[in-house]
């Protein structure tokens, strides 16, 4: 036995490959990260202005073995030290998911150890458990990324109530699309966040979609259309366009609706704890306004480090650990589920 562990320690090898990051992590007892290697594909996809599924799958195939090797070496462990394997099986790009899932199943089969299939969205929530060792449910979590916008009430480990989600574009997807029309490149979120610091967030009154009374769902398609209409109208009039003002005003409209609905959820559920997760959780304006409003309402806010906001295997390993100790096991015929919903368990999930 590895001298850095006791016989009670549970060592998780986790794999994440749902989109354009190939990531492998080794964790001890769910919350202690021994390694968290991320191989990004941003350079490969930048020339296309977004993620190309076939390119992503090929890059995962090329990277997966190297990233596994690096993760083991950095953690100073071997396959013999691993207690079980966790891997993302949805939601995500099916070809990308299958690369990581196939590697995880091969390791589990070869070593004769359990496999835990993990929901990627749940992984984003659990990134907060890694960052904040004292954090425990219940709490409200706002998950905002390129593909997902959810408001979730986490009652306990593995128990979720989805209170709201996007009806069209996810917040991160809207950021990418607006960044593209502003000529800022991919990925759009960090570019808009940076440019917005130079602009006036009240310069343009872009709309916020509240939807019907009492709804915690989001809609960003109307906002996106409003930005496009503004740009086209100003160009037709021959007016100069201050793109920093457009970026700041667009970002403010997104952030305000996210924050308002998150605070309302927390008040309705009478919880004192809010968490933030997903790639857009790295947005400085979102963090700042949510912190400000949380303090105003007597709520505590927690969010992960920037590295844990992006897609990474450590968050997947954390979910896998808690599923493992609660007795869940996946069979080796586990398949990728591109549209997996939060809280769902695959039919073969025992």
From TrEMBL:
Domain Gcp-like residue range list: 32-317
Family according to the record: Belongs to the KAE1 / TsaD family.
HAMAP family: TsaD
Classification via Pfam families: TsaD
Binding-site list for Fe cation: 120, 124, 311
Lineage of producing organism: Bacteria, Bacillati, Bacillota, Clostridia, Peptostreptococcales
Organism from which the protein derives: Anaerovirgula multivorans
Name the record gives this protein: tRNA N6-adenosine threonylcarbamoyltransferase
E.C. designation(s): 2.3.1.234
């Amino acid at each position: 036995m590895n001298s850095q562990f006791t016989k009670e320690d549970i060592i998780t090898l986790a794999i994440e490959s749902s989109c354009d990051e190939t990531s492998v992590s080794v964790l001890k007892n769910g919350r202690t990260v021994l390694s968290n290697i991320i191989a990004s594909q941003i350079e490969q996809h930048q020339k296309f202005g977004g993620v190309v599924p076939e390119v992503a799958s090929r890059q995962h195939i090329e990277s997966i073995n190297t990233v596994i090797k690096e993760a083991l070496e950095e953690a100073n462990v071997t396959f013999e030290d691993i207690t079980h394997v966790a891997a993302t099986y949805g939601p995500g790009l099916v070809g990308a998911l299958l690369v990581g899932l196939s590697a995880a199943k091969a390791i589990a089969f070869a070593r004769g150890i359990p496999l835990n299939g993990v929901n990627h969205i749940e992984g984003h929530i659990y990134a907060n458990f890694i960052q904040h060792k004292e954090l425990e449910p219940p709490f409200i979590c706002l998950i905002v990324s390129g593909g997902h916008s959810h408001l979730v009430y986490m009652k306990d480990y593995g128990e979720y109530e989805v209170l709201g989600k996007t009806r069209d574009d996810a917040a991160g997807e809207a950021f990418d699309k607006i960044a593209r029309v502003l000529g800022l490149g991919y990925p759009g979120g960090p570019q808009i966040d940076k440019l917005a610091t130079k602009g006036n967030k009240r310069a343009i009154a872009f709309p916020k979609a509240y939807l019907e009374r009492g709804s915690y769902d989001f809609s960003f398609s109307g906002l996106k259309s409003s930005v496009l209409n503004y740009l086209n109208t100003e160009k037709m009039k021959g007016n100069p366009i201050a793109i920093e003002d457009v970026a700041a005003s667009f970002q403010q409209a997104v952030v305000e609706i996210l924050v308002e609905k998150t605070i309302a959820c927390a008040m309705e559920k009478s919880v004192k704890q809010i968490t933030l997760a997903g790639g857009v959780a790295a947005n400085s304006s979102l963090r700042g306004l949510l912190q400000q409003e949380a303090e105003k309402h007597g709520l505590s806010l927690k969010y992960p480090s920037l590295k844990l906001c992006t897609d990474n295997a450590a968050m997947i390993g954390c979910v896998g650990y808690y599923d493992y100790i609660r007795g869940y096991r996946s069979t080796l015929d586990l398949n990728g589920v591109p549209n997996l919903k939060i809280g769902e368990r695959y039919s073969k999930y025992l």
